[in-house]
Amino acid sequence: xxxxxxxxxxxxxxxxxxxxxxxxxxxxxxxxxxxxxxxxxxxxxxxxxxxxxxxxxxxxxxxxxxxxxxxxxxxxxxxxxxxxxxxxxxxxxxxxxxxxxxxxxxxxxxxxxxxxxxxxxxxxxxxxxxxxxxxxxxxxxxxxxxxxxxxxxxxxxxxxxxxxxxxxxxxxxxxxxxxxxxxxxxxxx
Length: 189
Description:
By secondary structure, the protein is mainly beta. It has a single domain (21-173), classed as Jelly Rolls, CATH 2.60.120.260. The protein is built from 2 helices and 13 strands. The model is unreliable at 1-18 and 178-189 (pLDDT under 50).
């Protein structure tokens, strides 16, 4: 039985992803540095702070992250020793009245050093965002494990500012640096 279980795990990436994936993004942030160990990575230019992407609030009256440019970069530090392998992510727009601010073209990247970034996904042409709309993007294969993740958008949908109401990061357990390990409970005999 143990050998068969191991064969199923190795033979079916879908089963592994289904069994172990979870949203590892915080959805209770109250500032760009709280709660620990999370830290938002953003340069100057935010109108409403970046932590709003991870505060769990997506209603029309809730405050999104707003950046004072049609292009930019924002990311999150998961904290020392906290690496994850990304499988998918999503962006949420909270208000169709500001859909012109939502990123349209971007790369999604991961890093363990902040000096070298690996592009995990490239997206273009994401237009016509509705109120409360959440769009998910799945990588072709799970990424290596990273401590830092960021979205680097080159264009939004025509606004002078950019905004993201919420972001999810769905992934697998990871070890810094490297690929995700198999769970300790699986033993091959």
